[in-house]
Amino acid sequence: MNHHPHLLDVQRLKTYFYTFEGVAKAVDDVSFYLDKGETLGLVGESGCGKTVTALSVMRLIPEPPGKIVHGKILFDGVNLPDLTMRQMRAIRGKRISMIFQEPMASLNPVFTIGDQISEMFVLHQRLGKKESWERAVEMLRMVQIPSPEKRVHEYPHQLSGGMQQRAMIAMALSCNPEILIADEPSTALDVTIQAQIIDLMMQLKKDFDAAIMLITHDLGVIAEIAQRIVVMYAGKVVEEGQILAIFEDPRHPYTRGLLKSIPKLGERSRYGRQRLKEIAGIVPSLYELPPGCSFYPRCPEAMAICQEKGPELTELGGGHRVRCWLY
Ligand code: SF4
């Protein structure tokens, strides 16, 4: 038993990749927390370290070349990097589940959907074969797959992309996880199906009471469902706060850029796809990060000091924190 204040508490996490080209500091001193039942949005362009952060929590970083070199990942007070792979397997997919960008990354093509979901019940809840199979059908129904009694006998490739996403969500939720990590759960889908998947996740969140960490580049989606936002840039947290604080009073020039790239409410279709194209410049290579603030080469408000020295996170009050020399 322990009484850690947060369900998940990531402290000063550093995950680096050691390659021939040099050391890529994919996650460089990242701290954030997730509370029970909360939905947290982890936002940024691709390559900013969001996915590596999630994979670090899951202990799924390919090692080598990757390595968690520093920091703590406290889940229910237990530091996950201290666990053996065997101990970790008892948590991964059971107490912490992840939905991947690509459904086929978690669905096995040679087994039926029913085999794969019922296996979760056999493994993690020690239910019998028959009961597990019935639960699998029930899960497919819950994620609104039509004729689940029939679909349960099908192989992943027989399902459409949207159905595969649903099957993956069913599998991720089948063990009633305390944390569900969803990495761009909708990137590959068209806007309507994407909206359905997000609605579905929110409905399931109510039913299952899982805390959700939603990883996305799409602030439109975040606005609808998250309570708090963590914005990442080049491996670092650059801004963090309650959703209202970030949307009404964004402080970091990068966050402001991200928000400008979302059309005003009413001008966009629901969950409009925004790929943040409007921010000029490209994400710096993690191998050759500029000295000082990583956003310096793209920042419209850059000052002399920004090029010399990287700013620390500054607390602005109410949990709103920003990493920028303007504050
Ligand atoms: Fe821009 Fe300077 Fe702030 Fe970095 S520290 S975001 S370069 S103003």
Characterize this entry briefly.
The protein is of the alpha/beta class and 327 residues long.
What does this structure look like?
The chain is α/β, with parallel strands linked by helices and 327 residues long. It folds into two domains: 1-95 and 178-264 and 275-291 and 311-327, 3-Layer(aba) Sandwich (Rossmann fold), CATH 3.40.50.300; 102-174, no CATH class. It is built from eleven helices and twelve strands. The strands form two sheets. It has an eight-stranded mixed beta sheet with strand order 6-7-8-3-9-10-12-11, with helices on both faces. The longest helix has 18 residues, at 191-208. It is globular. The two termini are 40 Å apart. The relative contact order is 0.14. Bound molecules: iron/sulfur cluster.
For CATH, the homologous superfamily of the largest domain is named as P-loop containing nucleotide triphosphate hydrolases
Q: What is the number of domains?
A: 2
How many DSSP-defined strands?
12
User: In CATH terms, what is the architecture of the largest domain?
Assistant: 3-Layer(aba) Sandwich
Strand arrangement across the biggest beta sheet: 6-7-8-3-9-10-12-11
Strand count, sense and barrel status of the largest sheet are: 8 strands, mixed
SSE sequence, one letter per element: EEEHEEHEHHHHEHEHEEHHHEE
Number of helices: 11
Task: Report the top-level CATH class of the largest domain.
Answer: Alpha Beta
- The value of Rg in angstroms is 20 Å
Percent of residues in β-strands: 15-25%
Mean pLDDT: 86
- The portion of residues assigned to helices is 25-40%
The name CATH uses for the topology of the largest domain is Rossmann fold
The low-confidence parts are: 265-277
Alpha-beta classification: alpha/beta
Shape: globular
| Ligand set | iron/sulfur cluster
- End-to-end CA span: 40 Å
